[in-house]
Hints:
The structure holds 2 protein chains of 2 kinds. Chain A is of the alpha+beta class.
Amino acid sequence: MTRKKRRLYMLLLALLGLGTATALTMTAFQDNIVFFFSPTDLQTQQAQGKAVGDRNFRLGGLVEDGSFKRLPDGISYEFRVTDTVNVVQVAYRGQLPDLFREGQGVVAEGKLRPDGVFLAREVLAKHDENYMPPEVTDALKRADHFKETAKTVKQ
Amino acid sequence: MIPELGHYALVLALFVAIVQSTLPMVGAATRNDAWMAVARPCAYAQMALVLLAYAALTWAHAVSDFSVQNVVSNSHSLKPMLYKISGVWGNHEGSMILWVVMLSVFGAAVALFGRNLPPTLKARVLSVQGLIGVGFLLFVLVTSNPFIRVIPPPLDGRDLNPLLQDPGLAFHPPFLYAGYVGFSMAFSFAVAALIEGRVDPAWARWVRPWTLAAWSALTMGIAMGSWWAYYELGWGGWWYWDPVENASLMPWLAGTALLHSAVVVEKRDALKTWTILLAIITFSLSLMGTFLVRSGILTSVHAFAVDPARGVFILVLLVIATGGSLLLYSVRAPNLKAGGLFAPVSREGTLVLNNLLLSTATATVFIGTLYPLFLDVLNLGKVSVGPPFFNATFVPLAIPMVAAMVVGPMMAWKRGDLPGALTRLWFAALAALASAAVALWVTGGPWLALVGVALGVWALVGSLVELAERVRLFRIPLRDTWVRTANLPRSAWGMTIAHASMGIAILGMTGTSAWQAEVIKAMRPGETAEVAGYAVTFDGVRQSEIDNFRSDMGAFTVRRNGAVIASLSPERRFYPVTRMTTTEAAIHTTWVSDVYVALGDPNEAGAWTVRLYHHPLVPWIWIGGVGMMLGGLVSLSDRRFRVGAPERRAARAGAVQPAE
C-alpha cells in the first residue's frame, strides 16, 4: 500500500462520512424541525391560506387570565394562550410544569386540531419566576407592534 | 476584608498568568533556560492565588456574608451547609472561578509531573495554559466579579435556584468542568507541538493521560447530570437532546475520538496531524459549550444571568483560541512528518473508522444544536430542533460505531484479519442474536429496540470475548491463563471495562426508551393504580417545614402479586424565598428496572396528580456511565503513564531530546 493510495482511501472514507452526515441531517431537518408560532402568526398564516396541517409546532404566549380550567378527570386541562392580540384555545392532558400560572409566559408543543384547538403534547417548563421564554417576549413585542400599526391604519 | 483578599488574589493571579504566558514562550524560542524556568513557579503561584480567591468566596458563602452581592443573589441563611458550599459554583460568577481553579490545577499538575518533559515543550505547554488562564481571569474580573459588595447589606439572601439544591447536582459541575478544562491540556500540548514542529509517540504518551483524566471526569459529569434530570425533573427522562446537554456531549464525542486517535500516534506514529486537529476541536467545543451555556442565549437552568457583555466576551475568547490555533495548524501541520503506514483493514483502520463516525456524529449534533441559533440571528424565524432530529441522525451513526467497537480490538496493528476476527467473535454474535430473539419473544418490541439489545449485548459480550482471547482462556492450561490475566496491562483492562460498560449503558438506554410504561392519574388517598404489574397505593400526604422549604410528602405502597415490596415517599417542595416548586421523585429500583413515583399538585376535590412510571433497565445507563469512567481511571493507572516509572524514564527522555 503506497502512501498515495492510503491517502485516497482516507479521502474516500472521509467523503463517505461527510455524505452520510449531510444526507442524514437533510432528511432529518425536513421532517423534524419544529417551528415556533404565536397566536398572531397562526392567524396570519390561516389568512394567507397556508395551513399548518398535521405538523408539530410550538405555540407561545401568555396564559390568558381566567381561562384555566381543570377537567373532571383531574389530569386534563384547558387554557387559552394569548399574545394580547389573538388567542388560541389549548387542550392538554398530563402534568403541568410547576411554574405554570395564569398571566405567565408559556410554550407548548403539539398540533392544531381541525376544530382550531391546539392539542398540546407537552407544556414546557421554565425554570424561574422572573424568566420569560425569549420566543414569548419576542412574540409579545411583535403583537404590540401589530397593534400599533393597526391603530395607525384605523386613524 | 476576606472578599477583598479574594479579589486581590484574583488580580495577582492575572498578572502571574500574563508572565506565565509570555516569558517561557519567548524563552523557548530563544533557548533561554532562565526564562523557560519561570513557567513552573508561575504555574504554582497561579494555582495558589486562584485557590485563595476560591476559598475566600466559599468562606463568604459559608458564613452567609450578605454584604457580598454574589451571596445575596444565590444564598439564604436557612440553606443547608452542603448547598452553601455547592452554591459557590451554582451561580455564574462562582462557576467561572471554579473553571479557572481547574485550569490552574491542571497547569500546576503539568509543572509538577512533567519533570521529564523536554524543557522547550514544557515551557510552551505551560505558556499556552497560562494564556488560556489570562483570557478567563480577565473574563471573571471584567464581566463576572463575584466579590462585589452591596451597601447596605440586606438582612437575608434571595436563595439558590431550588432545582440546584440537590445532592446529585451539587457535584455535577465540578466533574463537568474537570472534563471541559482537562481538554485544555490536550489543546496546550497540541499548540505547543505545532510551535515545536514535531509530534512523536512520546508526545502522545504525555497527552493521553490528561485526555483520559478529562474524559473520565466528563463522562462522570454527564452521567450525574442525566441522573439528576431523571429523578428531579419529575418526568423520568434521562436525556432530552437539550442544547445544554448537547454542549457537554460534543466535547465528549470529540474527546472520545481524540482518546482513540492518540493511541494510534502512540503505538504506530500515524494520524499525527489528525490528532492535533482533534485536540484543538475538542477544547474548542468545550469553550463553545461554555459560551452556549453562559451567554444566556439558551434557556435552561444553566443560563443564570442574561448579560450580553459576557456572551460577547466568551465569543471573542472562543474566536481567538479556535481561530488562532487553527491558523497555526494550517501553517505548521503540513510540515509534520507523516509516520507509519497501515492497510485499511487493520487496528489503525478500525480506529480511523471510529474517529470518522465519532466526528460525523459530533458534526450532526453541532448542526442540530446551532441551526436554530443561526436562523434566529439571521431573523429567518424561530425553530427548535428536538429529540426526533437527533434520534434520526445520531442513532444511525452510533449503530456501526458500536458494531465496529468490538471488532477493532481483535485486529492486529498494520494489517488485520477481518474474517479471522469475526470468527473469533462467534460467541458474541450468537449471544447478541439470542438476546434479540428473547427480546422479540418477550416484548414483541419495535425493531430498533431489538437492534439496541443486540448491539448492547454484542458490545458487552464481545469485549469479554476479546479479554478471554487475550488471556487464551480454555486454549492453554488455566494456570497459564491466570498468569496472563495477572500480567495484562492496566490499559487493556481499562479498555475492556469501558467498552463493556458502553454495552451495559446501551442496554439501559434501549430498555427505558422502548418499554417504559407511564400512568398519569388524579389519585385520592386510599386509591390504587397499576403500572407494569405493580400495584401502587396512595396512602396520603404529610406536610412539614424543613430548612428553607415546605414539603408535601406523599406516602405510597408498592405491591407486586399482593406482596408489599416497597414504600415510596415522593415529595413536592415549595421554596418560599424564590417562590418555586420542585418535584422529588421517589424510586424503587431492583437494579433491573425502576418503579418511579412523582407527586403533582392537589386539586379542589382532594385528589393529587400522580405520575407513575416503570422504567425497565434504566439503572444500567448510570452503571454503564460509572463503568466507563472507571475504565478510564484503570487505563490511567497503567504503568507507562505513571510518573517516574524509573526504567522507562531514561528511554523516554532520550527519545525526545531535540535533535540539534
